[in-house]
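Subject: two folds for Thursday's group meeting

Dear M.,

Sorry for the delay on this. The cluster queue was jammed most of the week, so I only got both jobs back this morning. I'm pasting them in the order they finished. Each block is the input sequence followed by the predicted structure tokens. Could you check whether the formatting survives your parser before we put anything on slides? The first protein is the one we discussed after the seminar.
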Amino acid sequence: MYNSAFYKTEARKRLSGNYGPAVAGTLIYMIPTYLVYLISYLAGHFTGFNTAITYILNIIFQIFVFNVFMVGYMRFLINMKPADGTDAKRFDFNDVLSGYTIGFKNTLKTMLLRDLYLVLWGLIAIIPAAVCTGIIAYLSVTTDTIANIYNMMLQLIDSPSPDMLNNISSYIIENCAYLPVITSLTAMASIACMIPVIYKSYEYSAVPMILAENPDMDTKDIFKRSFNIMHGYRWKFFCIQLSFILYMMLTAIIFTVSMSVPIFYFAQALLMPYMWMTLLAFYTQRRDVVLYNISVYGNN
């Protein structure tokens, strides 16, 4: 298996002479995300319901816009041809929107199922918090310990002082020393329960790429192929993503310095073609291996 440098080299070859159009295509792909931000900002500014509106908008856009644009953007990058001095068409901006014109229903269904699977796996992480909440609720009903801690916390917020903080600490140690232990165990258990979600998210990483190439493939076969592509290579995929950490930090610094959302989006648009083309190089190499194995051993 090749290292990150190999896939980055392949990405640069594909982007050679095409970087400008790739950035333009990325900006088209990012338009819905910016619109959600803009609508949420304006709604928060005029109504004060920024969080609620953002949450609702994100759900709607995730299903009907973000997912579809993602598949179209993958198709745009996959179909991009290196500049070779000929007059052959190297890119087509219509590909970015092709999720609505090519296999739209299948794209909508498959990407929605992917999101639902991840949400259901994510429910596992809620179990420790639910147990901890149940214990605290039980203590609230059967004793006045939680109520006393709550009142002391309110006093600390109103008039913060080292003595008040020490009083709270002493009260907890004397009356419910087990509470910090329960809280710590809950936090650790919640983090541990996130592992399956992360694991599954990497298993489904190839789904939009497969859809971009096979818009009419059966949903079950798409998930199976994604599993075969990522099986044993999730860590490799993560390492390739991690190799872009300095670039991501740079975009964060640009935003911190400029405090301008448009500039931040443009900085991301400069990075995304390189990053995604690198990940697509990995996908292409793994896809070829999987298809070869299927041709030799059958689709088992």
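Second protein, same layout:
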Amino acid sequence: MILNNTQIQHFNDNGYLLVKDALAPEDLNPLIAEFKEIVNAGATQLYENGELNSSYETEGFDTRLAKITEQSPVVFQKLFSGAHTGPALFKLLVNPKLLDIAESLVGPEIMCHPAYRVRPKLPEHDRTLVPWHQDAGYMEPACDTVLQLTIWIPLIDATVENGCLEVIPHAHRDGVFRHRRVKGKPYLDIPPKALPDVEPVIVPVNFGSVLLFTNLTPHRSIPNVSNQVRWSVDARYQDASKPTGYQPEAGFLARSRQNPETVVTSPTEFKRIRDEHQPGPGPQRWTEEEIHDA
């Protein structure tokens, strides 16, 4: 799906864009099946080990992981990361529909950024409540001027109730805001006093639609007050000639006219690359501090 000029202008002006019906069920269902298999295998093993009261096999994709995690974090921890390297995830990351969108914004030489992530957001769960930040806050400063495009892909309808994203429009024009690394917290956040004085926009995203935003767009996920697991994937793309700024993880070339022979085309090669460059803490550009100005 190539973006039209109106969509590109909206993205450039606002720092985000909702693209409705970008993907069909057949684009997403294989990944859902892949995640279901992991959840089922984990639940079965935990139940056999006596660590669960039930394997919760009658629960749906949108509720089963939440039930399991109430008693054990093992399956959740396996999925909530950049460590998953299944073939269905690879096929989604290199889906031509997503690469066409990315090409509209970053050009024809497309690197799949190393910081892709799987995000099962659990109900009332602190670990999956992500505060205000810019993705650039996690990257090296040399990448602050590189467009690193996030394509945020929900695997169920992302609603206000189950914790969709909220963005601050136009603020991507103001560079990287101050972030802080708070002791005992898993995420960077932008302190309230450093946030721009701009009204945020909550963006529900239906299954099949995707949300685009820049690495400089402040965003957060709002609380999940439903009984659902809001499953989503963060796919990120950029010009392959630019630095990714996120060592030690490795991205891979997803599309190239200049060097088509170096494009990664197989799930096996994708897994090899990822296994050789395990997810790490990323750049440490912000000092740790206590909260005094919240």
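Two things I noticed about the second structure. The mean pLDDT is 94. The longest helix spans residues 25-48.

Cheers,
T.
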